[in-house]
User: What shape does this take?
Amino acid sequence: MQISYNWLKKYIDINFTPDDLSEKLTMAGLEVEGVEYLGEGLEDIVIAKIEEIKEHPNADKLVICMVKTAADKKAIPVVTGAPNVETGQLVPFAAVGTTLPNGMEIEEVRLRGELSQGMICSKDELGLQEERAEGIMVLDDNAPLGGSFLKYKRLDDYVFKLDLTPNYARCLGMIGVAREIKSLYAQEKDLRTPPISFEEAEELGEINDYVEVEIEDPDLCPRYTARLVKNVKIKESPEWIKRRLKAAGIRPINNVVDISNFVLMEYNQPLHTFDFNKIKDGKIIVRRAEAEEKMLTLDEEERVLDDEMLVISDPEKAVAVGGVMGGANTEVTEETTDVLIESAYFNPVSIRKTAKKLGMHSDSSHRFERGVDIEKAIEANNRACQMLAKCDGAKVVPGVIDNYPLKYESAVITLSTARVNELLGIELEAKEVKESLERLGFEVNPAAEAGELEVTVPSFRTDVEQAADLVEEIARVYGYNKIPSTRPISKQRGKRNPQQKFEVEVKELLQAGGLDEVITYSLQDKKSYQDLNLTQFEDYAKFVSIKNPLSEAFGILRTSLIPGIVNVLSSNARRQGSEMAVFETGTVFRNKGGNTRPEELNMLGGGIFGRNVDLWQQGAPNFFELKGVLEMLFERIQLDKVSFIPDNDNRDFLHPGRRAEIKYDETQTFGFIGEIHPELADQNNLPAGTTIFELDLDFIFEKTAEKSYNYQKLVKYPVLARDLAIVMAEEIAVGDIHQAIKEQGGEILKGVELFDIYQGDQIKDGDKSAAFQLKFQADDKTLTDQEVNERFNQIVKHLKKEYSAEIRGN
Amino acid sequence: MDLLDDLKKIEKEAEAELKEVASLDQLEEMRIKYLGKKGAIQSVFSKMGQIDADQRPVVGKEANILKGKIQSWLGEHKERLEKEAAQKRFQAEKIDVSLPGSKVEAGRSHPLSLVTKELEDIFIGLGFDIAEGPEVESEYYNFEALNIPAHHPARDLQDTLYIDDHYLLRTHTSPVQVRTMEAQEPPVRIIAPGRVYRSDELDASHSPIFHQTEGLVIDKEISFSDLKGTIELIVEALFGKDRDVRFRPSYFPFTEPSAEVDVSCIVCGGEGCPLCSRTGWLEIMGAGMVHPNVLEMSGYDSDVYSGFAFGVGLDRLALLKYGIDDIRVLYENDKRFLHQF
Assistant: This one.
């Protein structure tokens, strides 16, 4: 909705500065998105007269116009190539020093040797039309010589662009806006609705002689009014109408269409005009369309209708989609002489459904959807007749058809002053509440109970349904910003629940481990899963598709955090990031089939590249750094019984020899870690060795007991340390050895730590050596060497028996 | 033979010799020379038999005094030499303290998380709990239960992404209001941060995926005043004391009265600048008194209970707070960006 200040002043005599009005409208709830000065950049353009046209001595296509801005001033030479200049023309002139709206600065120049001291402007140069004009703009003979161009063209106007919420339907018309301003800011001023009077052509008889209106479906059309104007000449509208419409952002077409648009803008009442002679038998039938009924609308599109839609029809054919768009078959054209004007009220829900289904959002449907003032249908129709009657020769057929099967009944709402005060936190008297509402056009009477009011809602307030709506109105009049500020009393202690606390802790631990938190889109491209070969993993292929996606890139909900993380890693690697370590927590979605709600899982994922401290000389520094962070996490959140088991055939997107399932209690897989498959890493611009992981965070939370930090008395007896270096076949997992040592060590073995792995010249090919430090300690006494040796030997024996492992050096 | 003279001589010699001692080895040599079993002092003792008996205690006493003296000289000198040696070693062990420390890089929080956590902590301090809900929602929770019936123009306010005829991606965190009210009796005091979705093309200021925090307070006698006071406190906590706050009428189907909350521009302070489109104000949240229809649909008696709700865009808050001019930057996760926080 776009309103011109000058036009608005026709309805209410206000004198606020444009900035002030903008602020007032916004604070009234009519949010102003922008204010535009129509004369922007035209302040210095004056009206000049071409006194004489001389030939240019050096150019065929140029002439020298001698222009004057006053009869007694010296003529100024202007070199121009415009084909339409003529002596005696009045033209918009930009003198030297003027800046045009497009930013062009006018300077004194020589064109092909001839002095030019200004510019005669075309419409596009003045910003009055988009497309390039053929020649200069020529003004009417009555334009005042030397006068301000923008004043003459009445461009000294501001346009307010309003972003109106659905409850401000009443402000989709100029009168509505003026009424709103009066109620809130200018009570003393009168609302100047246009006085409507015009002559009816008695000699034409009366409308019922020509027109009949039958409403078959009053639920969809509770009121339909019609008037007939004969002998209309279709032509261009007068300048003032065109100016008003342009300021409102509506393109002028011809006098009939422009008048209907003018009334729409003025009254917020959409009208439709038919070429009456194309309506069979002058009979209008308002009915539901038949299934599959077809009609060609004004925009030359063939529409297929259904039986939920309302059409305006004659006995033979549909002539309009009611309230949405007219039909091409009855369009007002240059040949039209008799115009039937429709001013009706259509059911908002029906209009909305129809407009949606047909994909036709029009100025008309926009207003009917939000509810127009049913009681003003005739006034708006008369206003159009009055304006048409002024066009030469037009004759208004006496009388109006008013088919009004479902009469409007005013809503009456009971309002308690005490409740108003309680809800707003203010202290108004019943009298003040009454006054506030009356200012806005509500009728207020005392109710039976003391302090209660009976409020009658005016017909233009289609948005007001219940007491709460009135409370807002009272607050608006009172002023939102005058309402005092208090704080609700609370007996509650706020907190995060255990799972929320857990998530905060997990994030903090991962950050302590050096991982940056990332946040990526949860709408993704199926292709990114295919590119990463993720779809072969069953859970990742359970896509939830978006029915109406913005694009393929946002076509599905993520089933894994991996594509987002890989994307972050590869884009950072491309930007020459030499190393990066990240994690993300977030929801993933898995299709459960049928019409069931998709499963939402809270996951933790991450990835790392660019690390180079190769702890175990395995050529996998990224893997072991990331694993280390996860182990630290598990330890800190007290998740025991975690093991990393080689992943033999589940996740082909990972390096076959460098991937592990992360299991709980050796049976339940709750995640994985692994290097991205080298071929995929290559295709996705990832550095070699990039390692990723993903874990089921809900599962971890469930398995993580409420943490308890029970103090354990520190043992005062000494620790005896023994190093154990053993040689074994290289395919044996060191983790298994580690586990075996722990089991064999029993109570007194308090710690086992791997400190070296070796493969090379000093040992047999196909073997590897692992060195552990074992720490022995008893809780109740000092261990003797003999006790420790016995246990140590038992371990060695076991390793030899189970793994054929030998003490190194033996 | 005058042993006393000998002692004096020994003392003089030792004193002179001590000055020449420059190392611990030399010092040991000197100790042996004077105090050793065959040393100078011992030789005096060994000659005691040759002198008068009445002289012996005198000489013995003097010899012991001298022995003690030399012992203490040697001790002091040793200490001095050790100190010097240590100093020398410390000098040799000197490091360049200007060399950089080991690289310990703590991971960073994403700015969106920072803003979310900051808000959460403020609200927890005000007695709010944190509530959550699914991102895939039903029509009922996302629209109907929030007083947005089908075929109402209010549906145009939020372009929705649908999964099928039943489910959609929640367009706001407001469904959590309804879920909370269904699950508990008043009083209610929650915020519900989370991810939301709209069918908005991605550009510098729009993203189809963004984050909001919903707030909801329901109890007896909750007023618009309470809403104002609470929001003013939040704005102060987030943007400091110097910001002005204004409330202006607006429309949300699930609140009535509804308000849009503006703060004076954080760049120009209200003078008008490009950030605030020269208005001096920045729109930061929507708020209002919970619509009676919403209360009733969730089984609360709207004659007894009232409440307020608000919704704030966390992405927008992060953009404003950190002066970021493009929402897409938040989701690019460039390391250079992440490491600014």
Q: What stands out?
A: Residues 309 and 354 of chain A are 6 Å apart (CA to CA). The first helix of chain A runs from residue 5 to 8.
